[in-house]
Amino acid sequence: MFPERMRGRWKRAAEYADSLQEIRLRVGSPATVLIGGEERFVGEAGELTDRPSERSVCTAEEVDEILGHMCRYSRYAFADEIRQGFLTLQGGHRVGLAGQTILEDDKAVRNIKYIRYLNIRIAHEMPGVSNRLLPRLYDEAGRLHNILLISPPGCGKTTMLRDLIRNVSNGNAYGNGMNVGVVDERSEIAGSYLGVAQNDVGIRTDVLDGCPKREGMMMLIRSMAPQVLAVDELGGEEDLRALRTASSCGCRLLATVHGESPAEIRDNHNMRNIILSDLFDRYVVLTRKNKKCEVEGVYDGHGRNV
Question: Are residues 186 and 283 in the same domain?
């Protein structure tokens, strides 16, 4: 991720690769890392400390050099991703970007210049994390339910969705393998790099990377004949209409949404139709306890804990 001359500073952080979650670089501030849910500052020589140091602040030149290296020294080739505020790196890691936006017709974001803030989110696959859920996600005939994962930010919903896709695609003790179409709008599920999935999403999975959900679902239905459609972070009525169309075409659904519970989403004016649509017959609610992501419960379409 870093130019060769800078790599020595990050050797200590790399020792925590299994639990390293984020690296944040902000011009004018010390670099920070998130390791196992604990924030640490990165010193000038790479030491991890609990206190910031004025000598270890990031400069605009350093951030520009790091970003250029991540773009293989051709920002133009990554213009579409930069415009959306992120880059996806080999290995499925995602870099969030912030700076000064350039607007088109005073509305749509055309580009981001003076990028001064980087949030490097380290991708971690957790094969098998969904295994204990599987008996509750299939009926007695081996038919997959339509499943909605509900989770606050940072509680593992994308990790869980990714492993569910893998299990459904490969097949498991409760159901045969199925063709899965993934609309990976933000490149977080499959972590595709140059079109190739970097994460294990199963042997029967097709990925449409960087495409808006509502358009991508229709494209996959027309071109790839999926038995299951998977999307991350439902947003509103347009996504819901696309899901209804997919369901009417016979596709099973795997999706996620931000929230604390089905009741909270039902009370949200912009999101309530996702619950009231009756599209989903299994709701998996995730939470965080003692700095660990956990499954709070699995509910049927009537709100009963199964």
Answer: yes
- How many domains are contained in the chain? 2
Among residues 166, 170, 180, 178, the alpha carbon closest in space to that of 129 is found at 166
Q: Return the H-helix or E-strand segment holding 296.
A: strand 292-300
* Strand residues in 122-258 grouped as ranges (E): 147-151, 180-184, 205-209, 228-231, 252-258
Q: Are 217 and 242 in contact (CB under 8 A)?
A: yes
Give the residue ranges of the chain where pLDDT is below 70: 269-271, 276
Comparing CA positions, the residue from 245, 197, 237, 186 lying closest to residue 229 is 245
Cut 0.85: pTM above it? no
DSSP per-residue letters across 188-218: -SS--BTTB--S---TTEEEEET--HHHHHH
Is 224 part of any domain?
yes
Q: What is the pLDDT of residue 229?
A: 97
Return the pLDDT at 269: 64
